[in-house]
Design brief:
Neuraminidase; 5-stranded antiparallel β-sheet
Length: about 260
């Protein structure tokens, strides 16, 4: 059974996710929707989320990192002062929750079982998203002029530049083979879903960065804010269509899974 939480955040902004006919057809009869209302501070903005092994959500609203369950939410970590939150990710390899903010460019992590042990990981100005390959964190961030984005592998002694692309930073995700899927942000009406192969990523570690021209173009889309692989399919938000939608890229085709109303 797949649970879809329709999260209504009570603050300046509230939205719901309504699963469309495609979603029902694709996952039926294993689709279940749950309405859940949670309260966040005024001015907070949910800018990152992930799913824990227990099925609960993690969200980063720039005030706190919260665990959201069908019965409510609890703050696992609270920022000392409000920030512009970027991402929050759970790493099953080390059991840690990683999260970022772009107000100061800091990235932190804590053990899910011991949130009070939150520690500084790295400073990457304009950081935007993170995903893991072989249990190691990769982060994308824009340059100071928002004209180029860099994807770096974070290590204990620093960061290793793996790939670059023109345009501001966008969502990244690794597929089951370890290939890097990236959706560059764009100031124009369209962008692309691109892929660097697992072999290319492996060869770039410690050996020089890949360029956008090295990537394969999978398809053109209008735009995206977040992405993840679910059941082997790339699921992403598309905030450049009306109504805003969650879409799926699979087998060379894009289809709509849900819309925001």
């Amino acid at each position: 059974m797949i649970n879809l939480y329709r999260l209504l955040t009570v603050a300046a902004l509230a939205s719901t996710i309504c699963a469309g006919a495609y979603a029902a057809a694709m996952y039926s009869p294993g689709l279940n929707t749950i309405d859940l209302q949670i309260t966040v501070p005024a001015g907070a903005f949910v800018s990152g989320f992930d799913v824990l092994p227990n099925g609960h959500y993690l969200i980063n609203d720039g005030r706190a990192i919260r665990e959201v369950s069908p019965t409510g939410s609890v703050a696992l970590y609270t920022f000392g002062s409000p920030v512009w939150g970027t991402f929050v990710r759970y790493n099953p390899a080390d059991g840690k929750v990683y999260f970022g903010e772009s107000s100061r460019g800091n990235i932190f992590a804590f053990s899910y079982t011991s949130p009070s042990d939150a520690a500084f990981v790295a400073n990457m100005p304009n950081n935007f998203d993170m995903d893991f390959r072989d249990g190691r964190p990769y982060v994308v961030a824009s340059n100071a002029f928002w004209t180029e984005s860099s994807i770096c592998l974070l290590g204990e002694t620093g960061s290793d530049l793996i790939a670059t692309s023109d345009g501001p930073s966008g969502p990244l995700a690794f597929d089951s083979d370890g290939s890097l899927i990236y959706i560059p942000a764009s100031y124009g009406p369209t962008t692309q879903i691109i892929r660097w192969s697992s072999a290319q990523v492996a060869d770039a570690i410690g050996a020089g960065a890949l360029a956008r021209a090295d990537a394969a173009v999978l398809t053109a889309i209008e735009g995206s804010y977040g992405s993840a692989f679910i059941d082997g399919r790339l699921m992403f938000t598309n905030n450049a269509v009306t109504p805003n939608a969650i879409q799926i890229y699979d087998g060379g085709a894009v289809s709509t899974f849900a819309t925001f109303v």
